[in-house]
């Protein structure tokens, strides 16, 4: 390590006071310089003064002899100085070999450095390369904590505002829903807690349009009811114990939709009447319609459906606006009857019933799935309900039909429901 490096490290030691070496101790030059130049160390100050005094007393002749000796030494061959084996003498040492040691002026000690003011901890920290990053990180942490605290403080207010906004949106949607339901005919007609059909339907299907089970009504519900149909409907008058004795009937053997549009029929009394006039004269508040079984043998599907639409439109035009219409699906035939006559095929009957459900939906009237009530697991008429010809019903069949109609009615607050019904209300005591 060179002297300059040692001095620099010495003087740059923080907050260290440089002190002069004690009296009589060797200086740095006295130790390092002889090692570098390979010369005799300089004498101390006392010896130097003595030498100067001796030199002053020496005669000038002695000085001249000394000078002559030095000159002769210079002219003599240079003698190599002994060096330790294996060590190559330096150029400077070789050049100085054979001549007297040269006295060099004693280097004065470097003056004592002024005391540096003690730096504070923050200043020293800032002077360190990592100090700036420390303060930057601390500032970032403070900002982050302030943001978190602000978010915690403002969270309840934001949550309350969001809940208020959600409640407003829900109220608006509920109001819009109620308005849409009120503007529907069948769709939106309240059936107890159930709403008939769905106004978002793209394809009308009987399973979505059919009237759900509501409450079991009292038989007085049918006091102002009219049953329109063919021989199947007429069977209620035969099985009076399982029928509706208090209801009215406009049912004729072999009748179809066209019969009620422009046809005439002959009653049992021999009187010829127009079925449409019978329907209008009944002045019914509820009209149950079941037609189609006879038309399966006599008409095409397109012709039947067209007459069916015209019949419903004609009834609505000639009956009061508050009249409730129930369109009933065509019952199936037994498996034996279907095997005998393919016109009663199940696929055909199902397709016609789907179209009847659509007619009910389009005209704002109700659809009753009588087919599902009377069919067995195969889709054909259950043998337990068949009268034997594969089309008409026995007493059990009419009982099942009657039970279905009693439990599937449009909900009205003034309707009397039997005990056990979810809508039963006890009559007020006198």
TrEMBL record:
Biased composition (Basic and acidic residues): 1-18, 45-73
Transmembrane segments: 133-153
Key word RNA-binding present: no
Pfam families associated with the record: Lipase_GDSL_2
Location of the region described as Disordered in the Swiss-Prot/TrEMBL record: 1-122
Residue ranges occupied by any SGNH hydrolase-type esterase domain in the UniProt entry: 227-400
Assigned keywords, A-Z: Membrane, Transmembrane, Transmembrane helix
UniProt-listed InterPro entries: SGNH_hydro, SGNH_hydro_sf
Name under which the protein is recorded: SGNH hydrolase-type esterase domain-containing protein
Organism: Candidatus Ruthenibacterium merdavium
């Amino acid at each position: 390590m060179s002297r300059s490096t040692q001095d620099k490290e010495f003087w740059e030691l923080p907050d260290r006071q440089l002190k002069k070496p004690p009296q009589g101790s060797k200086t740095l030059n006295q130790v390092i310089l002889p090692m570098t130049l390979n010369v005799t160390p300089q004498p101390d100050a006392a010896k130097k003064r003595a030498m100067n005094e001796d030199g002053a007393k020496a005669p000038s002749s002695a000085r001249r002899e000394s000078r002559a000796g030095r000159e002769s030494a210079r002219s003599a061959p240079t003698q190599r100085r002994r060096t330790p084996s294996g060590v190559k003498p330096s150029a400077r040492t070789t050049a100085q070999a054979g001549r007297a040691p040269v006295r060099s002026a004693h280097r004065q000690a470097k003056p004592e450095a002024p005391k540096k003011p003690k730096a504070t901890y923050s200043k020293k920290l800032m002077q360190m390369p990592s100090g700036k990053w420390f303060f930057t990180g601390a500032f970032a942490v403070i900002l982050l904590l302030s943001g978190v605290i602000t978010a915690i403080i403002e969270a309840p207010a934001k949550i309350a505002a969001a809940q208020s906004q959600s409640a407003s949106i829900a109220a608006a949607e509920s109001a819009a829903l109620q308005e849409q339901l009120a503007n529907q005919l069948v769709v939106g007609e309240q059936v107890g807690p159930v709403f008939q059909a769905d106004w978002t339907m793209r394809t009308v299907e009987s399973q979505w349009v059919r009237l759900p089970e509501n409450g079991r009504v009292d038989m007085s519900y049918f006091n102002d009811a009219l049953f329109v149909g063919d021989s199947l409907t007429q069977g209620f008058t035969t099985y009076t114990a399982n029928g509706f004795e208090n209801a009215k009937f406009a049912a004729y053997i072999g009748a179809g939709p066209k019969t009620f549009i422009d046809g005439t029929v002959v009653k049992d009394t021999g009187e010829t009447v127009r079925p449409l006039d019978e329907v209008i004269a009944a002045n019914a508040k509820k009209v149950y319609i079941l037609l189609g079984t006879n038309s399966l043998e006599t008409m095409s599907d397109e012709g039947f459906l067209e007459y069916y639409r015209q019949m419903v439109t004609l009834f609505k035009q000639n009956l009061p606006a508050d009249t409730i219409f129930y369109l009933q699906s065509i019952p199936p035939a037994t498996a034996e009857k279907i095997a005998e006559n393919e016109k009663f095929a199940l696929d055909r009957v199902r397709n016609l019933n789907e179209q009847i459900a659509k007619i009910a939906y389009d005209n704002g009237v109700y659809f009753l799935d009588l087919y599902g009530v009377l069919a067995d697991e195969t889709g054909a008429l259950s043998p337990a309900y068949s009268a034997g010809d594969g089309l008409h019903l026995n007493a059990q069949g009419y009982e099942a039909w009657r039970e279905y109609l009693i439990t599937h009615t449009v909900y009205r607050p003034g309707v009397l429901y039997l005990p056990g019904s979810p809508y039963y209300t006890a009559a007020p005591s006198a």
